[in-house]
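Re: [ENG-882] Designed sequences occasionally contain unexpected residues at chain ends

Forwarding the minimal case from QA. Structure tokens:
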């Protein structure tokens, strides 16, 4: 803040601040995004990403975590601040600046609120309905960040069960990048990183039981997964 402002802020307009959440999961072999149908104007009955206004006594992250738990019933998930969207005309109600976040939730942890107040449902990333505000732009930006994170960090594992097969991991990468990987080369590359721990083999299957893996703890970020 410039020194010329001094202590008196009363002459400055007060914009509103919101947080908006792009929440990804993998279900039915698709990347999906959580959307909510608005119950009020503006854009009544249109789809939006979950979000809300930041209370005066909340930090941005506290507000984001509150909205995440409110809409999905989960708390302990991967959450990252994405970008600030501040076009003066992005909200017809007035000057609203939104700080966007993206979250990754394993499908085994999903517990969506089912009340009429929160009409939240999962939508395929490739078949999104028309969205209100600038939420399509926010989702597209989040997807670009997601792909980058998949290449250079271990965040992809947030979308998997704690114990997973190599085939599940490969399918996850193929879904996000929209391409196929050679099974042998993919396995060789992942194992060479030494980021996995072998667990037991999968049980109660009618075919040859595959090896289960888990991500090693306290790894930090890994460079060049792909």
């Amino acid at each position: 803040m410039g020194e010329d402002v001094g202590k008196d802020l009363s002459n400055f307009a007060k914009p509103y601040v919101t947080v908006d959440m792009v929440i990804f999961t993998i279900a039915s072999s698709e990347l999906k995004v959580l959307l909510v149908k608005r119950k009020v104007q503006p854009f009544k009955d249109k789809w939006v990403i979950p979000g809300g206004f930041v209370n005066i006594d909340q930090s941005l992250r506290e507000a984001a975590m509150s909205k995440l738990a409110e809409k999905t019933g989960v708390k302990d998930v991967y959450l990252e601040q994405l970008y600030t969207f501040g076009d003066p005309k992005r909200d017809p109600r007035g000057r609203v600046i939104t700080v966007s976040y993206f979250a990754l939730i394993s499908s085994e942890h999903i517990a969506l609120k089912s009340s009429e107040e929160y009409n939240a449902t999962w939508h395929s990333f490739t078949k999104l309905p028309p969205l209100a505000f600038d939420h399509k732009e926010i989702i597209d930006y989040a997807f670009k960040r997601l792909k980058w994170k998949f290449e250079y960090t271990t965040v992809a594992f947030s979308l998997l069960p704690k114990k997973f097969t190599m085939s599940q991991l490969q399918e996850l990468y193929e879904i996000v990048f929209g391409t196929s990987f050679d099974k042998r080369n993919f396995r060789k590359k992942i194992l060479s990183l030494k980021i996995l721990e072998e667990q037991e083999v999968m049980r109660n299957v009618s075919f040859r039981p595959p090896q289960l893996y888990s991500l090693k703890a306290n790894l930090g970020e890994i460079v060049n997964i792909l």
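QA comment: On inspection the terminal residues look reasonable. The first strand starts at residue 16 and ends at 27. Proposing we downgrade this to a documentation issue.
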